[in-house]
């Protein structure tokens, strides 16, 4: 089996970035407006995906991941949902106030719907047993210090995929 490279998945209201964990180069970047949906697999809850549209080719692409933990996949889907909500609220605010398309880095406001709490706390690191590397991905969260206690709508989260 081919070894899967380690990447960082960065999710914000602007979009999703795949970053090479070894050299920090951006592998792929998807703007939030080009992501049409995101979901967990109903039969395998550790698997999640999102669909993007390439504006140049007009093709759609499905990006599928298998998380090491079901709760981690759930947390990522919630984060993507928060990113959609923040982007939508910022677009409404910009349209209402007649602001330019430049948006602030963080947006402190209450979402229109309550955000469910994650089933588990955020992990900072995970040790992987080499004999259990059957899964496609392991997604430990990397969170900025102080962000664990205050999880507002600023949806700048990163995760590492193996």
From TrEMBL:
GO MF term set: ephrin receptor binding
Residue numbers spanned by region Disordered: 99-119
GO biological process: ephrin receptor signaling pathway
Gene Ontology cellular-component terms listed: cytosol
Organismal lineage: Eukaryota, Metazoa, Chordata, Craniata, Vertebrata
Keywords: ANK repeat, Repeat
UniProt xrefs under Pfam families: PID
UniProt organism field: Gulo gulo (Wolverine)
Protein name according to UniProt: PID domain-containing protein
InterPro entries, sorted: ANKS1/Caskin (IPR033635), PH-like_dom_sf (IPR011993), PTB/PI_dom (IPR006020)
Domain PID residue range list: 7-94
Source organism, top-level taxon: Eukaryota
Keyword Signal tagged: no
